[in-house]
Amino acid sequence: MQLNLKSLFWNAIFVLVLISVCWLIYASGKRIDYNWNWERVVPYIATNAASSINAPADGEIVLAANNQLVLQNLSGDTIVELGGYSSLSVYEGDLIFEGDSLATIEEWRIGPILQGVITTIKISAWSLVFALFLGLFIGLMRISSNPALKKLSVVYIELIRGTPLLVQIFIVYFFIGTVLDLERFTAGVIALSVFTSAYVAEIVRSGIQSIPKGQMEAARSLGMNYPKAMIYVILPQAFKQTLPPLAGQFINLIKDSSLVSVISITDLTKAGREVVSGSFAPFEVWFTVAALYLILTSGLSWAIQALEKKLSASD
């Protein structure tokens, strides 16, 4: 009974803190005298507003054999079929010029903010995969007995961790990207992968060194060579040890991906800036962007926690 009262007390404290934070946000909004217009943000997330179908070239509206209106060019070739649209703006015999509105259609489609979310997920996912493999390779070099490999890994890690990600993105895109003719998306993935891999390498190194040396000695005594002992004995144990710090680093990767907007990749952050200029609702847009980043990072955190529990249960 006493334990339940204690738990109830601290849960009440937790709820009180949340209420206090919400009240502070509400009071701050009142203090700056800002008119909240959340409805302005909704069309930039998803909308079913009517969109116009415009003529791609000059032509004439004619009635086809199937009793359907079509736009034909001067040679008699069909350019656009006008069946299935909710509202037509033309009639049979109309002369049409390029850019004229032919019809309108109402259908659900994603807005620029959700499109930015998709781009952020893509660039983060590719960067996460490459950073994991590159970081594992650099981490193994870091503990290698070969002095050349070890020193090269140290220089790589210190150089990457000692320079800002923003500067690295500029170097990869404007220097390396110009030489190798890289696209913006590819340059962004490379920059994020290289930056994150330096931190992953140190996490991998610490995870491997946390495994007792007796594990390697036992594996070698069973006839395994060094690579097999590392792959089948050491790395699986080290992976369990490094899951929490890896989760934190991958969450940082998702947030760091916002910097690729400086090379004109329309990720979630860049989409937010563009929507702010068109909606004149800066606070609503940035709160929405922050909430979407929170959903992405929380989803990744939940997935890694589930994997960690599954691995713990298998021990």
Automatic annotation (TrEMBL):
GO terms (BP aspect): amino acid transport
Keyword terms of this UniProt record: Amino-acid transport, Cell membrane, Membrane, Transmembrane, Transmembrane helix, Transport
Transmembrane segment boundaries: 7-26, 123-143, 155-176, 182-201, 285-304
Domain ABC transmembrane type-1 span(s) in chain numbering: 117-304
Aminoacyl-tRNA synthetase keyword on record: no
GO cellular component annotations of the record: ATP-binding cassette (ABC) transporter complex
GO MF entries: transmembrane transporter activity
NCBIfam families given in the database record: HEQRo_perm_3TM
Function: Part of the binding-protein-dependent transport system for glutamine; probably responsible for the translocation of the substrate across the membrane.
Protein name: Putative glutamine transport system permease protein GlnP
Organism of derivation: Marinomonas algarum
